[in-house]
C-alpha cells in the first residue's frame, strides 16, 4: 500500500509539473504572438521600438531562450525588424533597437542567421558600418560577425563590399570592435563558395599590431595569422608585411610561441614571402632569427606546419652541395644547438629528432649559419624559445 501511495504521489507530481509547463508555454506563446502582431501592425515608430525591445528582453530572460528564438522567428518578427534597419526614415534609436533584437534572435541559432540575411539585412548593416555613430557601428560589426558564422551566409556577405569597412574598424574601432572585425573577416575567409573574400593589403598594418599585442597561442592570434597568411599571397600584402614595423619579426615570434594553428599560418606567411622572391626575403627572415623556431617546428608542428618549415629551411640554406658537412660534424652542431635550446638533459633527444627529420627529408641546412646562431644564443633568448 505504501508503495502504491508513493507511486500515485509521484504521478500526481509529474502531472502538476506538466500542467505548469504547459500553462507557462501557452503564456509565453501568447506573449510572443502579441509582440509580433504589435511589431507588424504598429504604425508609430515608438510602438515598433517598444516591440523590438520586448523581443530582446524576452529572449534574454527566457529560461529556454533557444525555443523562444524559434518561436519569435515562426511568428514572423524578422522581416519587420529588418525593415526597421532599412527604412531611411527610421531614427537611430529605432535602428539600434531592431539591431539588438536581431542580434539576440541570431545568437546560437543557425536558422535565424540564415533567415535574417535572406530578409535583406546585409545592405543596411553595411550602411551602418559607414556611420559616425560609434555604438551603431560596433553593433553592426557584431551583427556581421554573428551572421557570418553561418556557412550559407558567407558568399552573400563577402559580395556586399563589407571587407574594406571591417578593415577600417581594425584601425579605428574600439577594442571589441577590432576583435569582432578580425573574427568576421576570418569567418568570411573560410567560405568554400564564391565569391571569395578579397582582403586589401591595408589590413596588414592593423593586423600586425594586433598580433604583436596578443598572446601568440590565443584563438585570436590564430585568426589574425590566418588572415596575414592570405595577405602574404599577394605582392601588395608581402610588401606591407615587410614594411610593417617588426612585421617579419612578429611572424617569427609566432612560429616560436604560437599554438599549433597560429604557427602553421605564421610559417605559411614566411614561406610565401621566400617562395615569391628568395633573394629579396631570405636575409630579412634570417636576420630575425627564424632558424631555431623553424627547427623546433619540424618536430613539433602540425603535419602541414612541419612540411612548410622544412621547405622554408631549405630555401634559407646557402651552402652549395660540395661544401656539405660530414654526418659527425652535423650531429655535433645540432647537439650543441639543442643543448642551448632545451638544456643538456633533453639535448640528446631533441638532437635525435631533428637529425632524423633532416635525414628523412634529405634536407641539409647551412651548417655555418646554424653554428653561428647557436653560439650567439644568450640564456635570455634561449628561455624565450
From TrEMBL:
Residues of the U-box domain? 32-328
Superkingdom assignment: Eukaryota
Which residue ranges does UniProt annotate as crossing the membrane?
A: none
Keyword Lipoprotein among record annotations: no
Q: Is Repeat included in the keywords of this UniProt record? A: yes
Q: Which UniProt keywords apply?
A: Repeat, Ubl conjugation pathway
* SUPFAM superfamilies found in the cross-reference section: ARM repeat
Q: Which Pfam families match?
A: ARM_PUB (PF25598)
Q: Which parts of the chain are ARM repeats?
A: 76-120, 120-162, 202-246
* PANTHER family for this protein: ARM REPEAT SUPERFAMILY PROTEIN, U BOX DOMAIN-CONTAINING
The protein depicted here goes by the name U-box domain-containing protein
User: Taxonomy-wise, where does this protein's organism fall, top ranks first?
Assistant: Eukaryota, Viridiplantae, Streptophyta, Embryophyta, Tracheophyta
